[in-house]
Amino acid sequence: ADGNYVKVYLFALMYADQNDTMSNDTIAKHLNMEIEDVLKAWNYWEKQGIIKKEYKSASNPFDYAVRFVSLKQLFASRNNKPAVTDGQKKKYIAKDVTAIAHSTEIKEMFNHLQSIAGRPFEGNETFEILEWLDNYKMHPDLIIQAYSYCVEKKNTNSFKYISSIIRSWKDKGIQTLQDLEKHLEETDTRYVMYKRILRALGLNFRYPTEEEKRIIDVWFDEWNFDLPTILEACKKTSGISNPNINYINSILKNWSQKGDAKPASKPDTPSAGKPRNVFEEYEKIRNKNEAIYESRRYEIYEKIPKIKIIDEEISKASISISKAVLMPSNDSEKSIDNIKKKIRKLNQEKAFLLTENNYPADYLDMIYQCSACKDTGLLEDGKQCNCLFNE
Length: 391
What we know:
Elements: H1 3-17, H2 24-31, H3 35-48, E1 51-55, E2 64-68, H4 71-78, H5 86-102, H6 104-117, H7 123-136, H8 140-153, H9 159-171, H10 177-187, H11 189-200, H12 210-221, H13 227-234, H14 245-258, H15 278-303, H16 305-326, H17 332-356
Antiparallel strand pairs: 1-2
């Protein structure tokens, strides 16, 4: 959850436990945030099913009291049945019982998704997927492709991230598999080639394994075949009961050795070149930079012990700010301001000590090859960083 939402929840819960009345305006003032953010927090927690709004006036949607749901009871109930809000129950219980029970298409979709995830879905995950179908009006096959794309290509099964991908596809007018292929051709050529080859083999709902990708890369990058030639080889499997990549590989290897098929010119676009396992590369970059950072910190602490003391004081001051935010008093704003001034002064002293000892002022800053995504490839909103496709 958003950090501000967590603060609103904990702060209000603390006063609710003490039977104190607390308005949204007061919460916003004490937590130093906009009233709109407080209202958004309650909307978020209501959707999660851990608070309930009790409206005082039917004509005023903002005039309500917040009742906290027992998390222990909620946890216990989720072991037996999905815990959802009243609005979700009205909208999705019938769909869950009827659509999944009677729609072969939706049942097959869930089977495919659980196969990709490698585990059965919990109750609330099922509801989220049904929300995707309802909110974005997408065909179940496209939901499967989105889930597969995120899990296999982007190395994440975060429902929040997958939802953002589906929403972005919807915004771009992608509603069919043909629309998706056209979109990916413009952004991820090799991914489309993988999927097109699998589809030619009748393997529509899965992503190639690492070994299959390695073999396909050889077809394009070493033997220099183009996609139409490879698809022509795939047609040779029409009489095979269990067509597979290895069978196509034997055909193309034979063509390559005999020169029966004319090789295509090697693609010169970055996206058509050999794909990188980018998330492994990013992890290597992060590990390397973290090792450099730790080495520098150890070096500085040895040579300038005063900086270690300063870092410890900064850490303590940061904890004091967190306490002041979550447990405010009459003078908390002044106290927080004083702590921030202290941290700025400590950082200035640290920078002075570094430069006095012939080190750059930012020598102890965390190192990032790309500061926008912090070497993850993904921005905070779930979108791809520009560095993702850079060579």
